């Protein structure tokens, strides 16, 4: 990355949950975004990308999971310089000219970008001083050995090429695409329950999965309307063998 960037736009896209055979409408969906206008922070991100080890040649990364963060580095003069950071597969970062290995070491650039793009809501959010609504719910697993039953629990699984993941947290996304509330799911205590406090309005409630090679993959989405002073119930249902 050339020096002189003054801000960076981070766009988080999710690939198809369930593998490359998913319908095209499920691919490349924008799930989160953040504009960083602090010049020092933007320059530090560019410097971190510049210091990534170069990816070896001849490696087949054709089955990247499509989940990615695109960082658009802005410069006072000239065009933006985009960098594609793949969150699955070979986990590389590239600007089209050079390719580096992003998923290396503790506190990798992947973790830093995920933390930035999914930053916690601030104390100065629109909920302050206004009546709030509650979105309460659970993961509902149904099935199992006869006669079968339904119970609240987290859920996980392993499948190639991305390996293993588990339901990790639930977020409420408003109509502007901003995450206004979130709750991590307790594990290994698999109760699969959550409670979010939000301003009244319409929301997409997203269940996200996480794992060694998977970051914030959308498992299910439920649309709901939250009314001030009331509790709305949302359930994510899974059929299990």
Describe how the helices and strands are arranged.
Layout: E1 7-14, E2 29-36, H1 39-50, E3 68-74, E4 81-86, E5 92-94, E6 99-101, H2 109-117, E7 132-143, E8 149-152, E9 156-159, E10 163-173, E11 179-184, E12 193-199, E13 201-210, E14 217-226, E15 231-240
Parallel strand pairs: 7-15
Antiparallel strand pairs: 1-2, 1-3, 3-4, 4-5, 5-6, 7-8, 7-12, 9-10, 10-11, 10-13, 13-14
Q: What does this entry look like structurally?
A:
The protein has 241 residues and is mostly beta strands. The protein has 2 domains: 7-117; 132-240, Immunoglobulin-like (Sandwich). It is 9% helix and 45% strand. It has 2 helices and 15 strands. The strands form 3 sheets. It has a 6-stranded antiparallel sheet, with helices on one face. Strands 9, 10, 11, 13 and 14 form a 5-stranded antiparallel sheet that branches. It is flat.
What is the β-strand count?
A: 15
Please state the structural category. mainly beta
The major sheet is characterized as: 6 strands, antiparallel
Give the uncertain stretches in residue-range form.
16-27, 120-129
Main sheet: strand order = 2-1-3-4-5-6
Helix content: under 10%
Q: What's the gyration radius in Å? A: 19 Å
Sketch the topology as an H/E string, one letter per element. EEHEEEEHEEEEEEEEE
Measured by DSSP, the beta-strand proportion falls in over 45%
Distance between the termini: 49 Å
């Amino acid at each position: 990355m050339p020096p002189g960037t003054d801000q960076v736009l981070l766009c988080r896209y999710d690939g198809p949950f369930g593998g490359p055979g998913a319908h095209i409408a499920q691919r490349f969906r924008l799930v989160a975004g953040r504009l960083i206008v602090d010049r020092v922070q933007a320059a530090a991100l560019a410097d971190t990308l510049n210091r990534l080890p170069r990816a070896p040649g001849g490696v087949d990364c054709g089955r990247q999971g499509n989940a990615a963060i695109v960082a658009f580095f802005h410069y006072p003069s000239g065009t933006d310089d985009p960098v594609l950071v793949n969150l699955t597969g070979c986990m590389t970062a590239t600007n089209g000219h050079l390719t580096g290995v992003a998923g290396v070491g503790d506190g990798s650039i992947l973790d830093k970008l995920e933390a930035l793009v999914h930053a916690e809501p601030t104390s100065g959010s629109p909920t302050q001083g206004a009546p709030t609504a509650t979105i309460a719910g659970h993961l509902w697993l149904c099935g199992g050995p006869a006669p079968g039953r339904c119970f609240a629990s987290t859920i996980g699984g392993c499948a190639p090429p991305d390996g293993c993941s588990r339901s990790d947290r639930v977020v409420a996304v408003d109509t502007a695409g901003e995450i206004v509330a979130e709750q991590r799911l307790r594990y290994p205590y698999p109760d699969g329950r959550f409670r979010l406090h939000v301003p009244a309005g319409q929301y997409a409630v997203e269940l996200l999965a996480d794992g060694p090679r998977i970051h914030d993959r959308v498992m299910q989405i439920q649309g709901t309307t939250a009314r001030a002073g009331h509790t709305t119930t949302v359930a994510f249902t899974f059929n299990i063998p």
